[in-house]
Structures are given as structure tokens and as C-alpha cells.
Write the C-alpha cells for this entry.
Amino acid sequence: MAWNLNSDRPIYAQILEVIQLRIISGRYRPGEKIPSVRDLAAEAGVNPNTMQKALSELERNGLVETQRTSGRMVTEDMEMIQETRSKLAREQVSEFIDKMKELGFSKEEVVELLEKMGGEDA
Amino acid sequence: MNVLAEITNLTKIYDKNKMALDHMNLTIPRGKIIGLLGPNGSGKTTLIKLMNGLLEATEGEVLINGCRPGPETKSVISYLPERTYFQNNMKVSELISFFCDFYKDFRPERARQMLANLNINEDAKLKTLSKGTKEKVQLIMVMSREAQLYVLDEPIAGVDPAARDYILRTIITNYNENATVLLSTHLISDIEKVLDEVIFIRSGRVILQDTVENIREYRGKSVDAYFREVFAC
């Protein structure tokens, strides 16, 4: 989960996605302290105010909490983390389905292909 | 808004027919990293020189903390000129003491740390350093002051991409929250992620001042792409 901020979309939105992914994947564990805005900004090579905005947004949706004395930490609400995970998964799948539609695949063909390729991977 | 510099009606005419700045108005807030962007000959360096008191305005004024350019403003502005001005037979270590004498906000330990991080030998004479290394040394000196305004004229043009990343990280981590960094560059894609705001100038006038995120959000493109569109030849 490197900071691949190569899209033309707003930078804070891309940063937010990286941090979200780090939380869902357990790189930042529930209840763990998150590095400071300045450290994260330096790591990502972005403006500190932009990093601040991404973290505030994560705070607003509850994935990150602020402790008055000890900075920001990942929520301990496992349900919320799971919810975010499913939401991101649904987004990925729907993006995938759209692309397959563009390629002219029917739903059945997509399912068939998934089963076949899933089998190959296993 | 907390204003650091106020530029009003600023005009600079070099020859009778060459108007480098054309009644420019600009407000520079505190606590931001701002990109000054424009094609060659748009007036970027002229503006920077006027802010540093190196040129006299034909008309209008620059106020920094409410003062016209002079000793007070020079003590709070850390300026990186387009070209290096150091004595070539000086050693890097002598340059550090030189800066200590000149600027009471200079932090030699910070400079030494950055020199070490970039593997630059303090005992080396400047004339033995490559062009890119000299530029790094100069930028290190400028960023090692605790200034209120850093004015950097093309700070990364001559250095390799790895050092460029280091320098940008240095800018992010070193400047304090009330200070502003104003930097001119052509290398927009390398630098736009560290900027709060950009100022586009053309023919000596400001044609846009906005945040990077607003440009991306509302124009649907990066600043680099938007610049190419606005200034298409």
C-alpha cells in the first residue's frame, strides 16, 4: 500500500483511500496510534494540510478517533472496519462488472469466468 | 485570512516597451506552500526580485508584514535566487559560518543534518561540487533559516529526481506552520502534491489563484494538465 497518488482526482481523496486500506488490511491495527500528520505527509510526499484534511475526513466517518492527549488512533469498532471493508469490496466488484459489460460479457459469462479462474488460482 | 504579503498594483517596466509586471494584485497568506507558475517570461522572477527588494517597482507596492522591502523584510524572508551567488573558493563549512553571521534565524545544526543526509562533504570547496550539488547546498542554506517567508526561484530545476524528492520532503517537514513557502517552477507534476495553492501568471498579471484540490475537484484534472491547457501554445 504505497502512496500511488497518480490520479488527477483530489489528493486528499487518494490519501484517504490508502489509509483506509491500511486500516482494513491490519497494517494499522484497531486501537493503534496513527503517525502524526507531518510524518505521514513527509512519507507520502504531500502537503501537510492535505494530509490533515484526509485524516479529518476519516475521523468524521469514524474509522479514526482523536484522543485528546495521544493524537489519532484507529477505531476499535471492528464492526465499522468490517463494514468499510465490505463497502470497498462492493465498489471494486461493481467497477469490475461495468468493465466486463463494456467487453460484452453477460452476467452468466462473468460468473463462469470467475469460477474457472478462481479454480486455477486455488 | 492571515496575510503575510500584499501586492498592490505592482508594475515593472524594464524598457519603454517591456512591461514585465502589469498592475499585479496578489495576497499571500501565512502557513501555505504556494506554487508560482507561468510560462517563460511571464514575470515570475521579476515579482520575486521585487519582493526581495532587488528591483525598484515602476508603480505599485509590495508589503511584507506591512513593510516595504528593506532590512526588516529581509530578516524574515529566506530567498533562493535563480542563480548561485556563492564564492567558489569557499568551503561548505565556511558558508555555514557565513550564514550564521548574516542571519540570526539560521540554524547551522539543521543545515549540517541535511548536508549529511545528502552525503555532501562540509570540507569540500564549492568549486569542486557539481552544478546540481551546488544547488542543493544553496537550498539547504535557505531552508535552514527560520524565516516567515521562503521565496524559492526554481528550487528543483537542476537536481536529480531522487534529490528532488528529498528536497520536497525537507520543505514539508522543515517549514513551520506560520511560515509560507512561495516557489516558482516549471516542474509542476513533481511539485503539485506538496502545494496548497497555485498562482498562474501570464504577461505580468495573475490569471488564477486557487488551491490544488479545488482545481482537481472542479476542473477534473491535475494542476499540471490544467496549466498545459491554459498556457497551450
